[in-house]
Amino acid sequence: MPNEIHVLFPGYSVPDPEDKTAMRANCSCTLIKASNNTNIIVDTMTPWDKRKIVEALATRDVKPDDINIVVNTHGHSDHTGNNNLFVNAEWLIVGECISQRDKYLTYNFQVPYKINDEVEVLSTPGHTISCVSVIASNCNLGNRVGICGDLFEKEEDIADCSIWRSAGSEDPEKQAKNRYKISTLVDYIIPGHGMGFKVTDEMRSKLKEDSIYK
């Protein structure tokens, strides 16, 4: 039985039409119903989205108390805003930090953190130094799916790398290399601020070219 991946809300990022100094943005929020009955939520939107998340989970027959693992691909406010909905979760993973209440694991993310045999968390620094991505195998959306946070802003940022660079990057060189790395590991990507998309060989070639950072 495949792992079920459900994008509860696709992310977005657009200029604020009323304020030229601001953006309007929110992250993609994704539920993984793993084949071993583990429920994982990746990125929890802003604190103003609590009701939306609860209602969206209910359409998948999941309550907040049913979530076993929370993963925030990084610590920005639009990715962490509703972590406190999931106080029954076994682990809270925020970037490269793993905790539960006041207990913190010492873990070296140079080795992927395995949630189970088919779902793991990888270090993918760039947008922030401690960014992570979730890779799930044997899924309804593809053989291997990457839930990548802001490593990828949206599909369009492959053709136009100014999109992800202008969105802020603590280490653009590492981000470019990890974008290519992830493209070689998965066949479908859920980005931080756009719709999910299939990875093509043409995309991989472009990402490889961009990974030789200029």
UniProtKB/TrEMBL annotation:
CDD domains in UniProt: MBLAC1-like_MBL-fold
Question: Which GO terms of the cellular component aspect does the record hold?
Answer: cytosol
Looking at the record, the residues that make up the Metallo-beta-lactamase domain are: 26-193
- What is the predominant subcellular site recorded for this chain? cytoplasm
* Source organism, top-level taxon: Eukaryota
Record's function text: Endoribonuclease that catalyzes the hydrolysis of histone-coding pre-mRNA 3'-end. Involved in histone pre-mRNA processing during the S-phase of the cell cycle, which is required for entering/progressing through S-phase. Cleaves histone pre-mRNA at a major and a minor cleavage site after the 5'-ACCCA-3' and the 5'-ACCCACA-3' sequence, respectively, and located downstream of the stem-loop. May require the presence of the HDE element located at the histone pre-RNA 3'-end to avoid non-specific cleavage.
The record's note on quaternary structure and interaction partners says: Homodimer.
Protein name according to UniProt: Metallo-beta-lactamase domain-containing protein 1
UniProt organism field: Hermetia illucens (Black soldier fly)
